[in-house]
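Query structure, 427 C-alpha cells:
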C-alpha cells in the first residue's frame, strides 16, 4: 500500500515509522523538511507537495495540517484515529482548552496507585503509535487530545473527558464555531456503554457531552464530583482533603476533580488510590512550575499559559504581589478580560514583550492600567529587569497569555530560557 504522511513533526515521524514497519511504501509530503528521513522512506517537499495526493492508497494527516487541504473523499486518517481503532486496551481521552496535561497526569497517577498498568501519550509524552504494539487488553491508555488531533476524528475513546473549552487558536481555525466543533469528536462517536466526563459549568463542554450517546458524568455540580473548601468531593463525601492536594490554584483543583471523576469507577471508589495519586502530583514543566527563590523573590514558570484565560488563573493562584511577564503571539484572542483582571489584582509591575505587546498595552489602557513597561530584549533582559523591580515576598511570574512562536521555538523553549535566566541571577 502507498501511504502519504502529510507533515513531519512528532506525530508525522511516528506515523512514517509505524506504516514503514508494516511494510508499506511511505512518502513524507511537506512544504519544508529539516529532518533526515530514515532509509526506505521517500519524500515530496516544496510548494507542490500536495499535488497528486489522491493517488495514494492512504493519506495520514498530521495535526498541524488543515483537513480541507486534503481530498474530501480520500482515504484520509490520522495517528489518533489509527490508534483508537486498533488499541486493545481501554482509552481515556482528555480534551479542553487548558489543563489537559495536568488532568492526564493525575488520571495516570491515580490509576497507577490502584495497581493498573497505564501508558500516557497523545499531545503529552510519546506519540501513541510508538507503543501501540505493546498495549495489552488490560492496560489503560490516557491520551491528551487537542483540537488539531480531533478535528476530523471518526472514532472516540471509551472514556472521554471534556474540560472547559474557551476561545483559542483563532489564527488557525476559520472562526470560533469551528474551534468548538473541532473538540466535539472526542465524544461524538462513543457508544452507550462508554462514559463522557465533562465540566458542567462550561457551556461548550456540556454541549459536547449532550451530543454523545455515552453515560454522562458531570463535574462541578454539588450533587456530583466537585471542589469545595479546597477539597475534592462527591456529593457531601470528601474524597481528597485539602492537605493532600499539592498543586496551587482553583484551576488545578478543577483539573484534579475531573481526573477523580474520570477514574472513580475504574478504581471502584478506592479513596486510598485517589488520595495517593493526587498527593503524588507535582507541577508539570512550564505549568505554574516553581523555579526557585532568590533573595526573597519567588520565580514561577508558566510558559504554557498561551491564552488570557490561563494567565487569569495564574494570577489568581498567587495572591502575593507579582511582577508579571506577558506577551508573544496572541493567536487572534482578546486581552480585554485579562486587562480587567490585572486592574484588580496585586500586580507590582507589568513587563510586556513580543509581537503583540502593543495590543496588550492597548487593552491595559482601556482598563485604566497605565503602569506597564515594554521590554524589547532577550529573556535574560526581561528576567534581569523583573529582578530589579521585585521586592522580597514578591513573585516574578512568567505567564505570557500568548503563543511563543514570534521569538521562540515553542513554549518549552521559552520556559527553558526563563529558567536559565533565573538561574543566572544566582551567579
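Result returned for the query:
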Amino acid at each position: 500500500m502507498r501511504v502519504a504522511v502529510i507533515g513531519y513533526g512528532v506525530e508525522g515521524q511516528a506515523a512514517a515509522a509505524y506504516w514503514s514497519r508494516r511494510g508499506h511504501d511511505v512518502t513524507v509530503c511537506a512544504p519544508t523538511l529539516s529532518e533526515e528521513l530514515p532509509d526506505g522512506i521517500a519524500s515530496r517537499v516544496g510548494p507542490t507537495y500536495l499535488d497528486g495526493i489522491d493517488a495514494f492508497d492512504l493519506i495520514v494527516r498530521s495535526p498541524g495540517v488543515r483537513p480541507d487541504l486534503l481530498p474530501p473523499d480520500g482515504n484520509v486518517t490520522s495517528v489518533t484515529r489509527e490508534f483508537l481503532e486498533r488499541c486493545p486496551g481501554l482509552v481515556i481521552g482528555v480534551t479542553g482548552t487548558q489543563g489537559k496535561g495536568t488532568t492526564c497526569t493525575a488520571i495516570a497517577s491515580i490509576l497507577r496507585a490502584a495497581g493498573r498498568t497505564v501508558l500516557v501519550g497523545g499531545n503529552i509524552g510519546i506519540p501513541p503509535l510508538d507503543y501501540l504494539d505493546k498495549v495489552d487488553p488490560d492496560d489503560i491508555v490516557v491520551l491528551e487530545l487537542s483540537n488539531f488531533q480531533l478535528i476530523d476524528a471518526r472514532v472516540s475513546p471509551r472514556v472521554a473527558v471534556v474540560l472547559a473549552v474557551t476561545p483559542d487558536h483563532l489564527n488557525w481555525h476559520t472562526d470560533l464555531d469551528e474551534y468548538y466543533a473541532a473538540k466535539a469528536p472526542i465524544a461524538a462517536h462513543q457508544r452507550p456503554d462508554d462514559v463522557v466526563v465533562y465540566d458542567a459549568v462550561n457551556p461548550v463542554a456540556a454541549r459536547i457531552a449532550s451530543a454523545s450517546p455515552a453515560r454522562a458524568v458531570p463535574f462541578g455540580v454539588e450533587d456530583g464530583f466537585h471542589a469545595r473548601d479546597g477539597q475534592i468531593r462527591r456529593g457531601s463525601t470528601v474524597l481528597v482533603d485539602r492537605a493532600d492536594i499539592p498543586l496551587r490554584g482553583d484551576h488545578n483543583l478543577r483539573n484534579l476533580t475531573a481526573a477523580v471523576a474520570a477514574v472513580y469507577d475504574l478504581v471502584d471508589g478506592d479513596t486510598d488510590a485517589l488520595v495517593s495519586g493526587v498527593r503524588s502530583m507535582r507541577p508539570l514543566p512550564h505549568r505554574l512550575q516553581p523555579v526557585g527563590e532568590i533573595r526573597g523573590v519567588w520565580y514561577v514558570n508558566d510558559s504554557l499559559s498561551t491564552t488570557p484565560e490561563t494567565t487569569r488563573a495564574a494570577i489568581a493562584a498567587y495572591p502575593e504581589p507579582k511582577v508579571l511577564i506577558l506577551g508573544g503571539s496572541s493567536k487572534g484572542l482578546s486581552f480585554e478580560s485579562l486587562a480587567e483582571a490585572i486592574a484588580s489584582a496585586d500586580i507590582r509591575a507589568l513587563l510586556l514583550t513580543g509581537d503583540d505587546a502593543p495590543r496588550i498595552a492597548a487593552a491595559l489602557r482601556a482598563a485604566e492600567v497605565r503602569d506597564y513597561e515594554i521590554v524589547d530584549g532577550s529573556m535574560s533582559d526581561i528576567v534581569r529587569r523583573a529582578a530589579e523591580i521585585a521586592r522580597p515576598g514578591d513573585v516574578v511570574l512568567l505567564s505570557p497569555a500568548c503563543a511563543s512562536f514570534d521569538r521562540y521555538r515553542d513554549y518549552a523553549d521559552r520556559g527553558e530560557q526563563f529558567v536559565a535566566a533565573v538561574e543566572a541571577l544566582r551567579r
